[in-house]
Design goal:
By secondary structure, this protein is α/β, with parallel strands linked by helices. The chain folds into two domains: about 35 residues; about 180 residues, Glycoside hydrolase/deacetylase (TIM Barrel, Alpha-Beta Barrel). It is built from nine helices and ten strands. Helix 2 packs parallel to helix 8, helix 5 packs across helix 6 and helix 7 packs parallel to helix 8. The N terminus is likely disordered.
């Protein structure tokens, strides 16, 4: 026998549907609230009319993909920004120094591959500085850019990074190479989504099987569209002075 809900009689199926809809509304409202609450944002792109874009690579695992990527960049006379995880830097110092010696920029990809927003401000700063020390020990540089693991952040992550003199860098075009969606998909996404001031996300970890095949065509297409490929720090020079 259906129960009465307000002035309407609802069956069990209808009640379940109604409860599901209410839960969905609550979930969407929560997401909107969180996005509004976390008012501090990383840098996704730079507003500019110049046809410049930053090609970036995250590396956390392996040593088979990085070197071919580095060779492709050298062959095409392209300098980019690599975001390297702390433990990987210690495990493959020769690759790190090859990245540096070829004129690429080195940023941090954090230490553990965890969502920093789950940690206290002190713990976040410790994670950043552990990776910072590894990069400094191996490459003899003071990194100041970080792409947080999984691109995760909140206001506290941004504040913590700023306190240790880091800028948090995201991306405005995701190649999706980390999903191994097919070489043509990677090429097409970057070629169609690129825009002035763009920060393009790619990966050079061994888990990304199609990056090296797609990269030469990605670079060729970007250049044919008139884009100059620069490091993130070079791109940030286009930001207005604070």
């Amino acid at each position: 026998m259906p129960k009465v809900f307000g002035f309407c009689k609802l069956s069990t199926r209808a009640r379940i549907t109604l409860i599901s809809l209410i839960a969905l509304v609550i979930m969407i409202s929560s997401v909107v609230y969180v996005q509004a609450y976390h008012s501090k944002k990383p840098i996704y792109e730079v507003q500019t009319d110049k046809k410049i874009a930053a090609l970036t690579f995250d590396i956390s695992w392996g040593n088979k993909t990085p070197l071919p990527v580095i060779e492709i960049l050298k062959d095409n006379d392209v300098h980019c920004t690599f975001f390297l995880s702390g433990p990987w830097v210690k495990e493959y110092p020769d690759v790190v120094n090859r990245i540096k010696d070829d004129g690429h920029e080195i940023g941090s990809h954090g230490y553990r591959h965890v969502n920093l927003s789950n940690y206290s401000k002190t713990e976040i700063m410790e994670e950043i500085m552990k990776a910072h020390k590894n990069i400094k020990d191996v490459a003899k540089i003071e990194a100041n850019l970080i792409r947080t693991p999984n691109g995760d952040y909140n206001d506290q992550v941004i504040d913590a990074a700023h306190e240790v003199k880091y800028e948090v860098i995201q991306w405005s075009t995701d190649s999706l190479d980390w999903m191994n969606p097919g070489t043509n998909t990677i090429i097409e996404r970057v070629s169609k989504k690129v825009h002035p001031g763009d920060i393009i996300l790619m990966h050079a970890s061994d888990t990304c099987k199609q990056t090296t095949e797609a990269l030469p065509v990605v670079i060729k297409n970007l250049k044919s569209q008139g884009y100059e490929l620069v490091t993130v720090s070079e791109l940030l020079k286009e930001l207005p002075e604070k």
